[in-house]
Write a structure and sequence with these properties.
Layout: H1 5-19, H2 24-31, H3 35-47, H4 69-72, H5 77-90, E1 96-99, H6 103-111, E2 118-122, H7 125-131, E3 137-141, E4 145-147, E5 152-154, H8 156-162, E6 167-172, E7 176-178, E8 182-185, H9 188-199, E9 201-207, E10 220-222, E11 229-233, H10 238-246, E12 250-254
Parallel strand pairs: 1-2, 1-6, 2-3, 6-9, 9-11, 11-12
Antiparallel strand pairs: 4-5, 7-8, 8-10
Helix pairs in contact: 2-3, 5-6, 6-7
InterPro entries: Carb_Metab_HTH_regulators (IPR050313), DeoR-like_C (IPR014036), DeoR_HTH (IPR001034), NagB/RpiA_transferase-like (IPR037171), WH_DNA-bd_sf (IPR036390)
Protein name: DeoR family transcriptional regulator
Organism: Streptomyces niveus
Length: about 260
Amino acid sequence: MSVTGSRRRDQIVHLATTTGLASVEELSRTFEVTASTIRRDLARLHSEGRLARTYGGAMALTAHPEASLRQRTGEAFDAKRAIARWAAARIVPGESVFLDAGTTVGALAHELRGHKPLTVTTSGLTALQELGDVDTLEVQCLGGTLRPLSQSFIGPLAEAALEQMTFDRAFLGTDGVTAEHGLCEADHRQTRLKQLVARRSQRVYVLAHAAKLDRRPFHAWTRLAPPWTLVTDTGADPDTVKALRGQGITVTLVGLGQGDGGPG
C-alpha cells in the first residue's frame, strides 16, 4: 500500500480507532514501509496528541480513551438488561456467587435485589451499592486498590483475598472479547483478577453485549480456560459467534425481552 506520509499517518489513526491494536511490525507490513518509518510516524502522531506510546518503549496504539462507568451505563441498555435477567435465572438459592465490576454485571446485581438467599462477593462498587441493603444476601467485597474509571478493586490485596474463596458461579464483564485473544481490558491488573476468579469458580459466565464482540480497544488480555459461557445478545455477528464456539466456548444468545429460564 503506497501512500504519502500524511495520508499514511491519517490511516494509522483510523486503524487505531477501529481495531484498537496495531504493532510496528503490523503497520510496516500493511503500508509496505520500514519499521523505522512507522516509528517516526508514531512519534509524530504522539507529539501531535493523536496517539499514545505504551509498554516499555515499544510503540503501540491506544484506540479509545477508556470511558468511565457512568458514561457506559446507558450503552445497549436493553441488551444488558436481558443478559442480566438470563444470568439471574441461572443462580440457585444458597450458592456463592462472584460479581465482577462493570455495567452489565451491575445490571445483574440489580436483578438480585429480590433474589433468594445467596452469598455474593464482588470487586465492584456498583454491585456493592445495589446489594448492600438487601437482608437476604450476604455481601462480601474484595479489598485492594480502587480503580476510579471502572469503580473496581484490583491489585495484590484483592488477589490475596481470592486465595481464601471459591465460588459456585462467577459473572465477569469485559471491554472486548475475541476468539483469538480472549478477554480485553484497559489494565493488566483487571485481567489478572478475572483469571484468578475463573480458576476458583465452578461455572464461569462472561456477560458482554454484541458490540463488545471481536473488539480489542486496549492491550491487556486474558484467555480463560474452557469451559466457560459467553452470554451476549442476538445482535452478535454469526461469524464471530462461530469463531468463539470453535475455541470451545459456549455462546448463549439472549433476545431482547428474554432472560427467563431455569438454572443451568
